[in-house]
Amino acid sequence: MAEKICVAVRVRPSISEESPSGTFWKIEDNRISLHKLHCTPISGLSYAFDHVFDESCSNSKVYELLTKDVIHAAVDGFNGTAFAYGQTSSGKTFTMNGSLNDPGIIHRAVNDVFQKIQMISDREFLIRVSYMEIYNEEINDLFAVENQKLPIHESLERGIFVVGLREEIVNNAEQVIKLLESGEVTFPTVNRHFGETNMNARSSRSHTIFRMVIESKGIDTGSGDYSSSDAIRVSVLNLVDLAGSERIAKTGAGGVRLKEGKYINKSLMVLGNVINKLSNGAKQRAHIPYRDSKLTRILQTALGENAKTSIICTVAPEEVHVEETKGTLQFASRAKRITNCAQVNEILTDAALLKRQQLEIEDLRRKLQYELEREKLEMELEEERRSHKEREQCIRDQQLKIENLSSLVSDGDRSSSQRSNYSELPDFSPVPDSFSNVADEDTWFKMNKGYIADLDSLQTTPARKVQSFPPQDITPSKHEEEVQINSRLMGEISELKQELDLSNNSLESSKQRYGNLEREFQKLKDERDSLLQTVSESSKNITFLTDQKENILKDLNCEVQRRKDLEAEIKQFSVAFASRQRSLASIHGEFKSKIEKLRAENLVGY
Ligand code: ADP
Ligand code: MG
């Protein structure tokens, strides 16, 4: 269904203390008009929009009245874009990023999306976010500083996309807020790559696009309804903080500013052109110059084609900004005329990541299946090759055997004919069946015209006789017989071969057993040797010890004898000593009595 783009104007609170001297903007309901001081509106400068928010309006109210529908539609599968357009310092960033007390549109949209998808139980969602800036017509990744000057590509599969832009898959609002913060972007906007002042200056010269890609798929209820469970919806939601719309070049800026100004002017001009063309109605929509700037190219799907769009035009109330405000309001009026024809992106192409992942999985599964089958086939082929080779070998063996047998048989023929003079016999004299068991010499005599055959040899060589016929004389029955004999012989040969194989196998195993036994025997021998060694060493020790013991015993006996001798000597000595003592005692007594006698004599002499 065709619907107009939702356009609102937001007037920020006045920053300067000065009160207006000539004109002022008056807001009544959804209308904003320039008034002469204490007077009526100036004609031609009164604009009506979907909403006009005065300076007391909060971000919460702006979100509720202007953006919420776009966000909810995005969850339902519609592309959506919310722009903030206006001159520098008119409140674009305040509206998009908000303040700590009053979070902006991005913050609210993120919360809202996750709240809403939690309430939808019959679909599963996959959400990706990215954040980029377009500065001097170059795209830089605000989530990854290293991703600078990224190109735009277009493919059937993915549509228009920025190559190399980091896309984060997110599961909850907090994760997104953290990403925005860690991406050095905080609320309100402070990109820490640049000094704050620097950033403010830069942010007014770059467009920033926060993008959410919402994919959803009906949860398979098992109803088998292929179309409803398989349909994947992909919607892209852009939240865009545009560069300042004031005409910098006009203010006489030079150098970098002039360059920046040219790019801003160019891209906003292209945006204006695109909006103009779109607003001119379907008839003149032949060529929309989306490709003229990166901004319009990136936002192409969200502008006029298949999207719900809301534009918030921020204006400054001060008199000094009247001209810029007029410009902004004119842009807003043109935008108001755009009709969009939004429809759910129920999808179809392989653009959906979910779909792509599914396809990839299917592809991998197919490849795996293919690999498995290939392996199986290879194995079968190998098997086939082997059996073919075996068959060939078998055939060769058989041929060889047949040749050997044939030569054997003809050799045998030659030798037997030499032995029994068969060559003199008529070529062929078939014996009637009834005679086959008859070993009657008379009959043989008659039948063979007096020739007496060697009956023993005749009975044991029927096959040889048949074999000796030249090939052209072989009748079918003979040939069959030959084949039978051959096959019997071959059977015997193969049996023999099998036996030989078996013998070889048993020989092999015997060899192995023999080897094992020999090893064991060697081991035992070694053990025995070492035991013998130990025993001989032990017996040596024993002999040595016995010798030692004997010596000791000898010594001991000697000692005992010596002791005995000594004892005898002591006895003798003590006897001698006692007699000597006695004789000494008697001498002593004699001597004593002599002295007393002398003494007594002496005393008498005096
Ligand atoms: P822009 O992004 O358009 O250059 P900003 O959002 O940075 O402008 O706003 C400029 C100044 O005005 C900032 O200090 C901001 O906090 C303040 N401001 C803008 N709009 C509002 C508003 N509606 N209410 C309160 N303060 C505002
Ligand atoms: Mg800003």
From TrEMBL:
<dbReference type="Pfam" id="PF00225">
    <property type="entry name" value="Kinesin"/>
</dbReference>
<dbReference type="GO" id="GO:0000779">
    <property type="term" value="C:condensed chromosome, centromeric region"/>
</dbReference>
<dbReference type="GO" id="GO:0043515">
    <property type="term" value="F:kinetochore binding"/>
</dbReference>
<feature type="binding site">
    <location>
        <begin position="86"/>
        <end position="93"/>
    </location>
    <ligand>
        <name>ATP</name>
    </ligand>
</feature>
<dbReference type="InterPro" id="IPR027417">
    <property type="entry name" value="P-loop_NTPase"/>
</dbReference>
<dbReference type="GO" id="GO:0140694">
    <property type="term" value="P:membraneless organelle assembly"/>
</dbReference>
<comment type="similarity">
    <text>Belongs to the TRAFAC class myosin-kinesin ATPase superfamily. Kinesin family. KIN-7 subfamily.</text>
</comment>
<dbReference type="GO" id="GO:0007018">
    <property type="term" value="P:microtubule-based movement"/>
</dbReference>
<dbReference type="GO" id="GO:0042327">
    <property type="term" value="P:positive regulation of phosphorylation"/>
</dbReference>
<feature type="region of interest" description="Disordered">
    <location>
        <begin position="406"/>
        <end position="434"/>
    </location>
</feature>
<dbReference type="InterPro" id="IPR019821">
    <property type="entry name" value="Kinesin_motor_CS"/>
</dbReference>
<dbReference type="GO" id="GO:0008608">
    <property type="term" value="P:attachment of spindle microtubules to kinetochore"/>
</dbReference>
<keyword id="KW-0493">Microtubule</keyword>
<dbReference type="GO" id="GO:1901987">
    <property type="term" value="P:regulation of cell cycle phase transition"/>
</dbReference>
<keyword id="KW-0547">Nucleotide-binding</keyword>
<feature type="coiled-coil region">
    <location>
        <begin position="354"/>
        <end position="394"/>
    </location>
</feature>
<dbReference type="GO" id="GO:0000226">
    <property type="term" value="P:microtubule cytoskeleton organization"/>
</dbReference>
<dbReference type="InterPro" id="IPR001752">
    <property type="entry name" value="Kinesin_motor_dom"/>
</dbReference>
<dbReference type="InterPro" id="IPR027640">
    <property type="entry name" value="Kinesin-like_fam"/>
</dbReference>
<dbReference type="GO" id="GO:0033044">
    <property type="term" value="P:regulation of chromosome organization"/>
</dbReference>
<dbReference type="GO" id="GO:0005874">
    <property type="term" value="C:microtubule"/>
</dbReference>
<feature type="domain" description="Kinesin motor">
    <location>
        <begin position="4"/>
        <end position="338"/>
    </location>
</feature>
<dbReference type="InterPro" id="IPR036961">
    <property type="entry name" value="Kinesin_motor_dom_sf"/>
</dbReference>
<feature type="coiled-coil region">
    <location>
        <begin position="486"/>
        <end position="569"/>
    </location>
</feature>
<keyword id="KW-0505">Motor protein</keyword>
<dbReference type="GO" id="GO:0005524">
    <property type="term" value="F:ATP binding"/>
</dbReference>
<keyword id="KW-0175">Coiled coil</keyword>
<keyword id="KW-0067">ATP-binding</keyword>
<protein>
    <recommendedName>
        <fullName>Kinesin-like protein</fullName>
    </recommendedName>
</protein>
<dbReference type="GO" id="GO:0003777">
    <property type="term" value="F:microtubule motor activity"/>
</dbReference>
<dbReference type="GO" id="GO:0000278">
    <property type="term" value="P:mitotic cell cycle"/>
</dbReference>
<dbReference type="GO" id="GO:0008017">
    <property type="term" value="F:microtubule binding"/>
</dbReference>
